[in-house]
Design a protein that fits this description.
heterodimer, A: alpha+beta, Aldehyde Oxidoreductase, domain 4, 7-stranded mixed sheet, 28 strands, 28% helix, B: DNA polymerase, domain 1, 2 domains, binds FE2/S2 (inorganic) cluster
């Protein structure tokens, strides 16, 4: 069966389909199995990038710019080169070719060429016998800078083109601008019964994976470059290395070892990957570079700060008539995924609610700050925050229950959004029901007394995108299976397991399809020499795409196994079922053989066993420029209820519980799905209350450490209560959709809405610090006393 | 000028002769001299807890401890738990490791060596901790992936197993309904 056959109504799962399977009928799928790498991680045996030590390995360090915006007049590395123990020093001119993860916007250099664009921009790199020597050498590098005007306010970048942060662009300091309108928004708003118009601000936040970026490279005497890197997209690193180092891609091997968290922060190709590769080529030695925590903060690629202006209208009965958005996006110093971010900021808002009309105008500008990029919920967490708060404001004006207004605007399943995106399964209503019931919303909302409240919010997110980062018609995901005579099946996948469990997901599917226990499956992943191409761990694409590719490969292999067994038994292949390490005859269950025997029969009959499988998206998207950006083969849906209290003396917000209901299609492993939901909600609450990634007036990071950048500890984290909703998508593997990013979105607006329920203040500027809470409370008191005074007069 | 020191460290029951620069931390010696890479470095500043090891049974941040200062102490790293459990007649991994695996508490796993050792130390001194005690004992170990829920559940599951009790249903299994407002 080709993966493409999985599209449409012929899918072999789903309610009402012939042969539909409920969870109980699956053997492996739908059960809380362990992860394939769990015990290795628990015992310290798992190997991460910095755990790799190679014979004769050198250590590399980076010299970074102390200025936010400057021309490089001169670099002198001679003293550094002369230091004993230093093997090589490289600067921008060693690798002058620009790259960028989006092929249309290559504006980065591995090391700065001619100018630096933020404090922390890499300028030179040294390889030496140890880190101390490399650090000492950095101090000996002389760089002369000519300072340029620094852009820190995105509003300035919008109107001022000189000095250009990136020269030679006709748009000046504007990185990307998108205006799209669907329907007559102005008329729809003019005819609305109520309109709410307001400003919202989303601050910057960063991923802060606990593992810092690290890369190790070797260059073999026969000219093969091998790079181990803490990346979540081996394929793009592979391509970028080939371009920048001018090496044919077949002479480069990229391997992702165990990865210590990413969340989007390891999606771009990074300076250190090019540097270790170049240094290994120059020195003939293995080279490692491990970034310090401070360097990770400067490398950033985190959530874009956005200034958001929204205007929404609704009829008396709470039906939206139109939504109008204007968004200014602070991109920091490089493009990164910015083109996509700009589109996503508008394109991904058009569910789970029906928008009759919609317009957005999003502009991303460059500033001299650490570059922003994709963070969990890329480009869509910010507009979602603004809109879900605005929806509460509308509900208030209309005296409607906040859950009720969301229900009334539900877009339905198997529909099309106003911007032309195809929506298939949609379990949003059930998500609302779940959180309403579990939080005892009806009995508790508005009745918890002053200081404590409940808030709700909903969201939608993509399960992969049909827009591959570089245009091509090849599959987005590929899988290869190898069968051993011992009964072991090895799965080769280009997919990147970044802790979300994608390797385990492949094993579960092979187990289900071939009827063998999980322990007889080994997964080899993310090694460009061994594995077929996969586009990597981003856009919540892996379960959907790699899962479908795995099923595709398994079905081909299963056909051979079944045919060989049927031949042996002299029966029809439809009578053979592979189950629990056996092949059994469905009509004569006393007849069976082990799967090892079945493998041997098939190898005898057909040849060496193996199969490949792939997945590509169907043609999707609106018929306009940018219409494919944000088009996904399926969307996930989420609703949260947050229970929070506000201390009016200190301004401190305490979150007690977060109910997270998420429609993930089908939970291939409910335990892993719940882990993704809880981790997402945690990250959302964390950026709402604690985290802030910002620079001071000199462009210097305000606190590039895990102490100053406050990640919630186990003491600060509320209780998360995951409610899994399964809508069984017709095209997802067994009906599955994503679970890793969607459940982050509603955390922030639901918290803001809970605070309104608790103390009557609308928090529209993130993060919700005690100072902002106190200021809002003061303002509210003043407003009320003026009102009382006026009332008295 | 760098000074090299020579000293002995007792790690996971073995005595190692170490020769390393005097300013090296215990984490550096474990990872880069002894090849025990299970202890992770997340910040090298005492902020994240990924480098936690047990020194005389107590959790210590090995990135903040000079290696030589641990001379004469019993150091346990994540690699030491399973062998110790086997030596004591147990099967497989340490029950805490086993529970973390069973309960899906491991996502990227990078925080987990430190987290598991902190949990082990907690259970050693308090065999049936409340969730509040867990929150407290694990508050020095940052986890960026899990939101801590499944970590608490793993510790609770380890406790239940050790006491021969059936573990409580997981958060996603039992539809939880809101409790009355807590004070
Ligand atoms: S590495 Fe020791 S606390 Fe972070
Ligand atoms: S599992 Fe990734 S940091 Fe805890």
């Amino acid at each position: 069966m080709s993966a493409r056959d999985l599209h449409g109504p012929g899918a072999p799962w789903g309610p009402g389909e012939p042969g539909a399977k409920s969870n109980q009928e699956f053997v492996t799928v739908g059960k809380p199995h362990r992860k394939v790498d769990g015990i290795a991680k628990a015992t310290g045996a798992a190997i991460y990038a910095d755990d790799i030590t190679l014979p004769g390995m050198l250590h590399a360090k980076t010299l970074r710019s102390p200025h936010p915006h400057a021309k490089i007049r001169r670099i002198d590395t001679s003293k550094a080169r002369a230091l004993k123990g230093v093997h090589a020093v490289i600067t921008g001119e060693s690798m002058p070719i620009k790259y960028g993860v989006i092929p249309w916007t290559p504006d980065e250099n591995a090391l700065a060429v001619d100018k630096v664009r933020f404090i922390g921009d890499p300028v030179a790199a040294v390889a030496a016998i140890d880190e101390d020597t490399a650090n000492a050498a950095l101090k000996l590098i002389e760089v002369e800078y000519e300072l340029l005007h620094t852009f820190l306010d995105p509003r300035e970048s919008l109107v001022r083109a000189e000095p250009a942060i990136h020269e030679g662009r006709k748009e000046g300091n504007i990185s990307k601008s998108v205006q799209l309108e669907f329907g007559q928004v102005d008329e729809a708003l003019a005819s609305a019964d109520v309109v709410v118009e307001d400003d919202y601000f989303f601050h910057g936040s960063t991923h802060a994976p606990i593992e810092p970026h690290c890369a190790v490279a070797t260059y073999s005497p026969d000219g093969v470059l091998t790079l181990w890197s803490a990346t979540q997209i081996t394929h793009y690193v592979h391509r970028a290395l080939s371009r920048v180092l001018e090496l044919p891609a077949h002479r480069i091997r990229v391997i992702q070892p165990c990865l210590g968290g990413a969340f989007g922060g390891k999606s771009d190709p990074f300076s250190l990957e090019f540097c270790v590769a170049k240094l290994a080529m120059l020195t003939g030695r293995a080279v490692k570079m491990l970034w310090t925590r401070e360097e990770v903060f400067y490398a950033h690629r985190g959530r874009h700060p956005m200034q958001l202006h929204y205007r929404s209208g609704a009829t008396k009965d709470g039906k939206l008539t139109g939504v109008d958005a204007k968004i200014l996006i602070d991109g920091g110093s490089y493009s990164s995924f910015g083109l996509v971010t700009t589109y996503y900021s508008g394109q991904l808002l058009t569910g789970p609610y029906h928008f009759p009309t919609y317009r957005f105008d999003s502009t991303r500008v460059f500033t001299n700050k650490p570059p922003c990029g994709p963070k969990r919920g890329h480009g869509s967490v910010q507009p979602r925050f603004a809109f879900e708060v605005q929806l509460d404001q509308l509900a208030e004006k209309l005296a409607l229950d906040p859950i009720e207004i969301r229900r009334r605007n539900f877009q339905g399943d198997f529909t099309r959004t106003v911007n032309g995106q195809r929506v298939t399964s949609n379990g949003f209503l059930q998500c609302l029901d779940e959180v309403e019931r579990a939080s005892r919303w009806r009995e508790r909302r508005g009745k918890l007394g002053f200081g404590r409240g409940l808030g709700v919010a909903g969201s939608m997110y993509i399960s992969g995108t049909n827009y591959p980062v570089y245009p091509n018609e090849m599959p987005q995901a590929g899988i290869q299976l190898k069968v051993d005579r011992s009964g072991l099946v090895t799965v080769f996948t280009g997919g990147n397991d970044i802790g979300q469990g994608s390797n385990s997901m492949c094993a579960y599917i092979v187990s289900e399809e071939l009827g063998i226990p999980i322990e007889r499956i080994r997964v080899v992943a993310a090694d460009t020499d061994l594995c077929p191409v996969d586009l990597g761990a981003y856009s919540s694409r892996v379960t959907f795409m790699v899962g479908n590719a795995t099923i595709d490969a398994c079905r081909k292999l299963r056909e051979q196994l079944v045919a060989a067994v049927a031949e042996k038994w002299g029966c029809a292949p439809t009578r053979v079922r592979l189950l629990e390490g056996l092949a059994i005859d469905l009509e004569d269950t006393s007849r069976s053989m082990t799967s090892v025997e079945a493998f041997h029969l098939a190898e005898t009959k057909f040849d060496t066993l193996g199969a490949t499988g792939s997945y590509n998206t169907p043609k999707l998207g609106g018929d306009y420029r940018g219409g494919t950006i944000g088009a996904s083969p399926a969307y996930s849906f989420t609703a949260h209820v947050v229970d929070a209290s506000v201390d009016v003396e200190t301004g401190r917000i305490t979150v007690h519980d977060v109910w997270v209901a998420h429609d993930c299609g089908r939970a291939l492993n409910p335990m892993i799905v719940a882990g993704q939901m809880e981790g997402s909600a945690y990250m959302g609450i964390a950026e709402a209350l604690f985290e802030e990634h910002d620079v001071n007036r000199f462009g210097l990071h305000r606190g590039p450490s895990l102490l100053d950048y406050r990640l919630p500890t186990s003491l600060d984290t509320p209780e998360f209560r995951a409610r899994i909703v399964e809508s069984i998508d017709p095209e997802g593997p067994y009906g599955a959709k994503e679970a890793g990013e969607g459940p982050l979105h509603p955390s922030l607006p639901a918290l803001s809405n809970a605070v309104y329920d608790a103390v009557g203040i609308r928090l529209k500027h993130l993060p919700f610090t005690p100072a902002k809470v106190l200021a809002a409370l003061r303002e509210k008191r003043e407003r009320e006393s003026v009102a009382t005074a006026q009332g008295a007069r | 000028m760098r000074r090299m020191g020579e000293y002995r460290l007792e790690v996971n029951g073995d005595t190692h002769e170490v020769s390393a620069p005097d300013h090296w931390t215990l984490l550096e010696v474990l990872r880069y001299r002894l090849g025990l890479t299970g202890s992770k470095q997340g910040c090298d500043k005492g902020d994240c807890g990924a480098c936690t090891v047990l020194v005389d049974g107590r959790p210590v941040l090995s990135c903040l401890s000079l290696a030589r200062a641990s001379e004469g102490r019993a150091i346990t790293t994540i690699e030491g738990l399973m062998p110790a459990h086997l030596r004591a007649g147990g099967k497989g991994a340490d029950p805490v490791q086993e529970a973390f695996d069973r309960c899906g508490a491991l996502q990227c796993g990078f925080c987990q060596p430190g987290m598991i050792l902190s949990a082990r130390a907690l259970l050693n001194r308090c065999p049936a901790p409340s969730r509040e005690q867990m929150r407290d004992a694990l508050s020095g170990n940052l986890c960026r992936c899990t939101g801590y829920t499944q970590i608490f559940e793993a510790v609770e599951s380890a406790v239940a197993t050790s006491l021969g009790l059936t573990p409580a249903p997981r958060s996603w299994e039992a539809p939880p309904v809101a409790k009355e407002a807590r004070p």
